């Protein structure tokens, strides 16, 4: 019996979108196509409540499954095998799939996509369960089964799977617009960008560096982080903004305690200009309330006043342990903890103010040529592009 593999991709949150569901499904289908672009032939079909990926001639179905399981918007993926929707055909396929397998306990989870099928889900569970018991020395365990056998009965055919991989959930990247994320070399900002991708945003990255005043190590880290995060959104842009000369000029006229807030306001202004040019509708940072001096509520309020676009902070209520755990899970942690010399270490006062006021900041900014700083940062930014898979570079738009 020749096996006919297929990925059954389930989604959850998208199904709640009602009138806008077709838009989200188009983004989901496109992102699944991008994720599988270099793995082999994969024909994608939209069915009711699921996306079907035909892998009949695919060289590595397991690799395709693992790629699809990283697509935002996906609730779960099963590597299943197709068979006609008759009980005898299901048993024949199960017989093939169970060859060489052993498990202490199992359960059958049968679902009918159409209720006119002559057998109920309970009847299918019993019939197929009895078939498994006759061939494998095992027992039924409905609560804590070692092996779960998934059966999905559709009108034309049935899909049987021995595995299910959970997806990341969320919304498909691209369905919620574009944001410009300020990316440092630390742990927090890559996690913030990832969380926005999970909400359907395409993320444009902006990294501030202080070359030649500091080594170029922070730029290398930014590139490595963007490369990792591109696995989740398939195409990325990174703007490398020269900030050292701007910092040097700020030092000449701004008192030390206020410099951090002034730096952050300038970063927002520059990122906002880059966002405007790219059509992004919001800014994003990795700030968490109270974590460092610039992240007190008073300082955050002063920093936000410099921006016209909304400033999103997806980590604002998370603690460091929660952020670190997410960074480890998404693969950015090891890069983030590598030593570097980013712009935050240049001309930074030992004791920054934690409760600045707008009157103080406006008074010191009156002596700065803010428009020139913003133009110098935005016009001097070097643009780099990333794609995953590499063959998808032409898809960056």
Please provide a written account of the structure.
- It is built from 13 helices and 15 strands.
- The chain is of the alpha/beta class.
- The protein folds into two domains: 5-166, VC0802-like; 178-395, Rossmann fold, CATH 3.40.50.620.
- The longest helix is centred in the C-terminal third of the chain and has 20 residues, at 259-278.
List keywords for this structure.
397 residues; alpha/beta; VC0802-like; 6-stranded mixed sheet
The H/E string reads EHEEHEHEHEEEEEHEHEHHEHEHHHHE
The biggest sheet amounts to: 9 strands, mixed
Report the top-level CATH class of the largest domain: Alpha Beta
Helix content: 25-40%
Radius of gyration: 26 Å
Given the helix and strand composition, which structural class is it?
Answer: alpha/beta
CATH architecture of the largest domain: 3-Layer(aba) Sandwich
What is this entry, summarized?
It is built from 13 helices and 15 strands.
List strands and helices in order, with pairings:
Blueprint (H helix, E strand, L loop, with lengths): L4 E6 L10 H15 L7 E5 L2 E5 L6 H8 L7 E8 L3 H11 L7 E8 L8 H13 L5 E2 L6 E7 L4 E4 L3 E2 L11 E5 L5 H11 L3 E8 L7 H17 L1 E8 L1 H10 L5 H20 L3 E3 L12 H8 L6 E2 L7 H11 L2 H4 L21 H8 L4 H10 L2 E6 L10
Parallel strand pairs: 5-6, 5-7, 10-11, 10-13, 11-12, 13-14
Antiparallel strand pairs: 1-3, 1-4, 2-3, 4-8, 4-9, 7-8, 12-15
